[in-house]
Amino acid sequence: MSNNHTSSSEPTKKKRRRSRSRMFWIIFQIVFVLGLMGAAVAGGIVTGYVAALVKDEPVRSKEELENKIFTNYLTGFAYYNDGSLIGQLRAEEGDRRLVKKADVSPYLINAIIATEDKTYYHHSGVSLQSTMRGAIQEITNQPVVTGGSTITQQLVKNTILSAEVSHTRKAREIFTAIRIERMFSKDQILEAYMNEIYFGKNANGSNVYGVQAAAKGIFGKDVKELGLAEGSYLAGMIQNPGAYSPFRAESYQRGKERQKMVLDRMLENGYITQTQYDGAIAGDLKAQLAKPTQQAYREVPFLMMEIEDRAARQLVDADLLEKGRDKSTIGRNEYRQLVEEKRRDILRKGYKIHTTIDKSVYDIMQAVATDPKNFGKNRTYTIRRSNGKTEKIENALEEVGAMLIHNKTGAILGMIGGRDFTVEQTNHATVPRQPGSAMKPLAAYAPAFELGLLQPASPIDDAPVLLADGQNGSHLPKNWNNKWQGMMSAREALRMSWNIPAIKTYLKVGIPTALEYVKKMGITTLVDADNYAATGVIGGLTYGTTVEEITNAYGTFANHGSFVDAYLIDRIEDSTGKVIYRHETKPVQVYSEQTAYLITDMMRSVVNNGTGTHIRKYVPRKVDVAGKTGTTNNSNDLYFVGYTPELSMGVWVGFDEPYPMPDADKYVPMVVWGKVMKDVIAKHPNLSAPDSSFKKPAGIVSATVDSKSGLLPSELSKEAGHLITDIFNSKFVPKKVDDTHQKARVITYNGERYLAKEGTPEDFVTEGVFYRSPDPLPTKEQIQAKNSRVSTQPPDWEQRLPDKEDPRTEAGGAPSSPSGVTATGSGKQITLSWQSAKEPDLVGYRIYRADMQNGFVKVATVKDPAELTFADTTAIHRDLGYYVTSVDIAGHESQPSAIASVGSTQTWQLPDPNQGTETGIPNPMDNNGNGQTDPGGTATDPTDGSGGTNTNTDSASLPAAPKSLSIKNTPNGWQLKWKGSSSSEQMYNVYFSPDSASGYLLLGTVSSTSFTHAAEVPNGSNYYITAVNSYGESPHSNIVTANTSE
């Protein structure tokens, strides 16, 4: 039975097993299908979520990605003209220097890969393992030991995406990283990453980006020179640069711990051996750290800021030219925006800017600028703003701006922006200030020479002139000494910087024409309003000029009339070394060589014996220099601009808030100029040779002309001694003979000079050769209405031919006698005074004197009836008697006045009027002025100087003859020196004769006691000097002879 049971149960068991297996399979299939369906649903959800996160992320082209990751914010550099480094340009982020992967130390590369992305060369931009690890660390709040981002992802985060922390940014990061990996090689991506990494601060405290900047800034060496210890330390800093900085003890210790972790990774991954590991761990990196270095923006801030600005402008101008756009049609705001965009490029694209600056020259200039002994003391003062409010300026520096330019090329070799950048950041070499008289050669004399209107010997009348003034009707300009100098040569006018001749020349040329020449010489600050101001030539411009531009303009004269625009930027290279800008010199001929030489020769006179002589304290006379001073009316601005044949330099000195400079500091611009140029010439003879000179071109000749008309001398010119010899452009030597001189008899009445009537007595008349004024002078009333403190007449007034005859008419009969005559002795003179006779036709008075031994003798003639005093300085006795007579224009003389006595109680007896001429009483009908006298007396010649002193007398105080005249042959010509009076009213005539047989010619009239004759003269030529004042001309000095064989 049992067997049957067993047998029957087997199929049943098998059937049950099959049934369970089938059920499991069915369930598995159902679960598998459901799993697949769940996975699909989950995947769809994930895919949809990711798609939603990146839907707004643009699909960037390869070019865009390349620009983003390979050229982002590189450090630029500026260089001196010899290629040496000035310094790095300011970077918006910090120091970043481009480097190729091949130039990076393999220790650093391996350290970065081992630490940041050990599977870098095996993934496609994203590491699933790293991403999962990062996600787990985030979910579980575990500390982050290694990040979840690959090197490619980090590059995307640093260069393309924002720094936000979100799933959206992470998704976009992964999406972009995968795209980058498809477009660029692994080595390209790694190179971009290494150029982008932030490494914290360098030894100077500046931010550093990229492995090259980090190696230089932290260890002081190129990245390819890094060893294992240095490379592993830098790789460790990437995670947290501030926390691992080696420049602080605390962070350095943390950095060493981080370095050990990096070395552990390198050892684990087979990049280094145990021996290398041990050596790197044991090394002390502190001794290898970079030392702080000088930073260009701290050491030469004015220069670096100027380089930035100019480089940006040059790039903008080059772009406009390339696009065919006219710069003058671009609005100021648009241009500024374009410049600012280029400035940003300069600061972040790794440009290399090569300048024209000579480091040695620049250092010389800074040494002078920073030495306080070269300047006046700081000042505190109060100014009034345009709104009427006052403001106190405290402890203000005397500021300085200077520019030194190579004449031939226009290269700016050096500059002074100011004395202290920390006090004032304005670059005083490039901001406009009023140039004062430094404008005279540019706007007056050079254009006049070029147009043939003047030459150095041409006369200009330094006399009162009224200029139109829109606000006040008219304006009376004045000179810096508040006096008129009379007729003078153009050379003399420029030498002593007289304002009136410059203004007259400016008007003669025509202001618009003159300013067109100025613009051709590179002055860009002029505006339309300047075309209407006659005082622009003496510095009264709307905005003034910059030191750079006026220096550049003066270089035109040194450069034979050719203007070469000054430049600072020689060339600009991009980060790859490609030249994107190169300066091109384009000379423009503004003046002829002859005009340039004539102006230069005149400005030699300024430097050698004019207003610019102070520079000779520093620059020896063997150095050929021409230049001009410039001072504004209130001395708010002081200039000196000068040049040698090779170099031009301009200097401005003043306060930032305009305020009058002290008189004691008026030479400061020349001190700065002289000290800089002295050192430059001494240390760089290749730039400006001490023995070089301005070469005289063909077409320059010497000629003698009439000093009052500028025409060829006439016989009357010679008789009057009005001759002057100077150099000319041969095209403009005059051909016409002078016709301005005339013989005449002249009298003075009410302070005015007239042609005398035929019957006027000779002793009241000045007879001689006179010249006609080139222009009528304003009346006394017109002058005094504008300025009551200046003279109404030039000092050579008495040499000029009156244009009107004496307006008085004869009243008939003898005039009445003067009344109230008194005589007072004081010191060595006796002063007479009296009351005028009443007749309107009086021509003047005669003075008679008697002593104890002699009867009355005429001792003087007072030629102006308005003069009612006389000082007798020739009396040798103290017992004297005087009387005075009145004389009219027809020669009728009055009876004697009452006698006035001095030193005696004696009663003086007047001669008997009935005795006529035999008794010494004047004959009223005798109009010859001889004053027939008592037989015991002696007639006095009114011109022999034996009388007294009076403004209008024959015995007036003529100046004494100059003494101790000496002569010396100098590189600049024959130098004459003498001793003269200290009187400010006195001038000196310089006479020249080429040989002993010829007559003497007047070379010129000067106010100083020296004169340089800049001409080649025959051996044996003679010179003498006379002094001149309002009374006349002195006897001549001793004669000196030019010996050319010495």
Question: What would you say this structure looks like, in words?
Answer:
The strands form 13 sheets. The chain has a five-stranded mixed beta sheet, covered by helices on one side. Strands 10-9-21-20-19 form a five-stranded antiparallel beta sheet, with helices on both faces. Among the domains are: 54 residues; 223 residues, Penicillin binding protein transpeptidase fold (Orthogonal Bundle); 284 residues, DD-peptidase/beta-lactamase superfamily (Beta-lactamase), CATH 3.40.710; 33 residues, no CATH class; 59 residues, no CATH class; 79 residues, Immunoglobulins (Immunoglobulin-like, Sandwich), CATH 2.60.40.10. The chain is built from 24 helices and 41 strands. Helix 3 packs across helix 10, helix 5 packs across helix 7 and helix 15 packs antiparallel against helix 22. The protein is of the alpha+beta class and 1046 residues long. A hairpin with a 3-residue loop joins strand 12 and strand 13. The N terminus is likely disordered. Keywords: Carboxypeptidase, Cell shape, Cell wall biogenesis/degradation, Glycosyltransferase, Hydrolase, Membrane, Multifunctional enzyme, Peptidoglycan synthesis, Protease, Transferase, Transmembrane, Transmembrane helix. It comes from Brevibacillus brevis (strain 47 / JCM 6285 / NBRC 100599). In the C-terminal section; belongs to the transpeptidase family.
